[in-house]
Design brief:
elongated; 4 helices; 79 residues
Length: 79
């Protein structure tokens, strides 16, 4: 397999993982009672989701979101 195929495979796997982590963060906000219902809608903005989860105290999940996002963009710009 050539380099482009490996890059596509890596982007697919890391992007899927990043998407799953983002959905988990979003579900943490939806289930959280810390924010009023209208404020929870702001979690639909992708950059607001990890910030709101950080405020709930789930810092390890946010750090994993940052790691997978950084890895995705590093793969994206590696070509």
């Amino acid at each position: 397999m050539n380099t482009d195929l490996w890059l596509l495979l890596g982007l697919t796997i890391v992007g899927g993982g990043w998407f799953v982590v983002h959905i988990v963060l979003l579900m943490r906000i939806v289930k959280s009672k810390r924010f009023p219902p209208l404020t929870r809608v702001a979690a639909l903005i992708p950059i607001a989701t990890p910030v709101m989860v950080w405020m709930t105290g789930r810092r390890s999940l946010v750090l994993f979101w940052i790691f997978t996002g950084s890895l995705y963009f590093a793969l994206w710009f590696s070509r």
